[in-house]
Structure of Multidrug efflux system membrane fusion protein:
Amino acid sequence: MPMSCPRLPWFRCRPRRHGTLPARHALRGRVRPLGLVVAVVLLCAVAAAVWWWRGQAARQAAAPVAAGTGAGAGGPGARRAPGAQVQPISADPVRRQDVRVLVHAIGTVAARNTAVVRAKADGELKAIRFKEGDMVRAGQLLAEIDPRNYQAALAQAQGALARDRALLRNAQLDLQRYQDLLAQDSIARQQVDTQAALVRQTQGTVQTDQAQVDAARLQLSYTRVTAPISGRLGLRQADLGNVVRAADTTGIVTITQVRPIHALFSIPEASLPRVVARLRAGAAMPVELWDRDQKTLLATGRLETVDNAIDTATGTIKAKATFANTDGSLFPNQFANVRLQVDTLPGVLTVPTTAVQRGTQGTYVYAVKDDGTVSLRKVLLGTTDGDRISVQGALQEGERVVTDGADRLREGAQVAVIAPDAAARADQAVQASAQGPRGGRRNLPPELAAKVQAMSPEERRAFFRQMRERQQQGAAPGGPGAPGTPAAAPAPGGTAAPAAAPATAPAGSPAAAPAAPAAR
């Protein structure tokens, strides 16, 4: 009887015969490669099925979007696809208004006057009477230099003047006596003439002494450093206790006159005749300064003058404008975008710059008609003034032109006018409902719920109302819920509801789900 080994495989317990393996072990060795091949084939089949299922879901979700942005959209001359959806757009009316003819330039703010306050007398800086950045008046005391040397020099000059004045007085008295004696014929005339010359010599000495006194007094006044002009002080260049000299180039502080202030910029040579004609006529030419992003108006002033020569390298000429700058917001060397108004076009038709489209047919706009469709109108562009531009074409005052969403339109497309921000939010809601993860019948996916929460109450109600309608009517073939049905319906108040989710979505997807509890 063969031995039994319950803890070991059967082929290890059976004795070998003639040095060969058991028959069952040999069969297992032949079957193992076949099992691996079958497993690999099954895995590939599962992966292909998953890939096909995801592709089908993506194509079903993208079908309504393709219906609105495919061959039926995309500009002038495009063919209309069957069942194309109503496109949400924003519109603005055509207006008749005065348009400014502007010359745009890049300019630099410049101070009206700039003065470097330097010491006119050598000496130690004993006191500083200003604060950096302050506004000062002309003649205001800024600093004091040690005056003792200059006080001594003034006293010395005054002493010499007093001495020579006494000598002059004595010489004049002697001359008077000599003249009396000459009248009595007691002295010679030569002696009188000599005394008269001495008097004139002493008078010259007194005048020299007086000039020295004035010079010493002037040097003493230089020890009090005052502001030469009114303006804003810069940073201090000398500290208390420093020895300043008249030959120093840095000075003590710099003053810039900023009220009023200038702006320097260059205008094209082609605009020069019109500008010069307005200047000669004495007409005021307004100038605006805008920040670097051209979003904030910095100041408004007027053109003062233009240069006397054109720069041949650039074909421009320099111009100077003046600004009151009462609030002190403009600083020298500040960058600014300049808008010079050279003329005004009265009563021309204007449209928003965002309404102008460009294509193979030239420039055009989409006008919204009373039946809710759009019509392509070719226009000729004129002058741009801010966010509007003057146009010439088949447009009437009061007509509405498309300002947002024109890239999805074509001639005769159905549109629904909504607020500019509502159109963007509606598109986001459509994408979220078509591409978001599948949720339950009473809950929306988190990303879609967040977008719906960001809508206005009217848009939210219209969105859920249309979802309910599509859930109820989606099963009817060719009905309103069929593919290609307009995805946007007018909401209460005249605006259009956000585009709804596709009606062909699976029953468990967000597009087929009923309204959330908050919308019931």
About this structure: The chain has six domains: 10-62, 87-100+346-416, 119-146+223-251, 148-221, 262-342, 418-519.
